[in-house]
Write a structure and sequence with these properties.
The structure holds two protein chains of two kinds. By secondary structure, chain A is mainly α. Chain A has helices at about 30-35, 40, 45-55, 55-70, 75-90, 100-105, 115, 130-135. Chain A has a domain at about 50-140. Helices cover about 45% and strands about 0% of the residues of chain A. The termini of chain A are close together. Chain B: It comes from Eptatretus burgeri (Inshore hagfish).
Amino acid sequence: MSLLGPRTGGAELEGRVTVPGSSEYGVHDTLRFGFTSTLSQIKNSHPLEASERLYSNPELMAGLAELRVTQGLHAPLRLLNELKITHKAGRFPCLNSSGIGTATVLGADERIGFEDFLNDPETSELMGEPHVMIERAFKLN
Amino acid sequence: MASVSAFELPRGGFCFDNCRRNGMLGAELAKHGAKLPKARKTGTTIAGLIFKDGVVLGADTRATEDTIVADKNCQKIHFIAPNIYCCGAGTAADTEITTQMISSNLELHSLSTGRKARVATACCMLKQMLFRYQGHIGASLVLGGVDISGPSLYSIHPHGSTDKLPFVTLGSGSLAAMAVFEDRYKINMEEEEAKALVRDAIASGIFNDLGSGSNIDICVITRDKIDYLRPYEEANKKGDRKGNYRNKAGTATILSEKIKPISFDILEETVQTMDTS
């Protein structure tokens, strides 16, 4: 059940749209997940939606490529190593983590962006389903 | 409380959930001949020029909402760093938030490097941010300041293009202001001459453009001092009222007078001590 598939931008459609929020019978669960619309799954409602969702990864990769050119192959490898370590540190997947280690490695502690005061995940009113998320994280499903 | 599915956890930054709703609302309203409300723009004249010792920035002070004046005295010259100021035209909220964010970023950057901020750094941060949002953030900015490499002046457009020039104007009144600059600008002017020229350029924008008006603000930045003159000149002063419609006391004759005391009983009395330590 890959919910990340269709919404990563129109170009990445594989000709298949999965039912969002399926529970037991493979049908959309309106009570828990709200009304559904296949069009809203495929089409971006705003031109920036796709580019914003995918922004951080290419930015990081471009920075690492620049590092490789200026400082040698070891620099991006060390940084990626540190990132892997800091990603592992944290609480259970359903609980909020401050992400200080990751932020320090990425240099995000010296920057302020829209993600710091708009829709801060620390103040979000929603949480993921703990059982599903932990099963996924520990690969128990 | 509804729980979100396993992977669609909320992430920070812009959330586009309401865009679909707005689109549907717009279509519904269009059926009845109405329109969605528009963001408040500043409909502005902003200008800047480099003189002998530094930079002079000027702006008018009117904010419009289509054809209504939303703010008669708004502040369009924003603080970026102690030696860098920025005039903003376009959508008012966008210019405010953009300049505040860049100001915070520049402060963090200068704390981390241990050096005073440079105008080129601010310009780079602004253009990268505006390009990332592909012009949807409607902020046209005139960025000026004096740093270790001397005075600099940049004009930054909403899609992320920048120009480094000796004199710039932006906003709806930019053509009127640019006409004045093109006529009288000279290299290495004195401070008073530069202030007068910027004042004339903004006044030209105020009197010839409907979107600009009210007062003229000026900011003079040199290596040693910052002069933030707000307002520098009240170009559009509201007239003084000549007549008075108030009636003098005793104009109405009192025909009769009746005084009626209102009696009340005290039902309950409580004493509450205050902690004044």
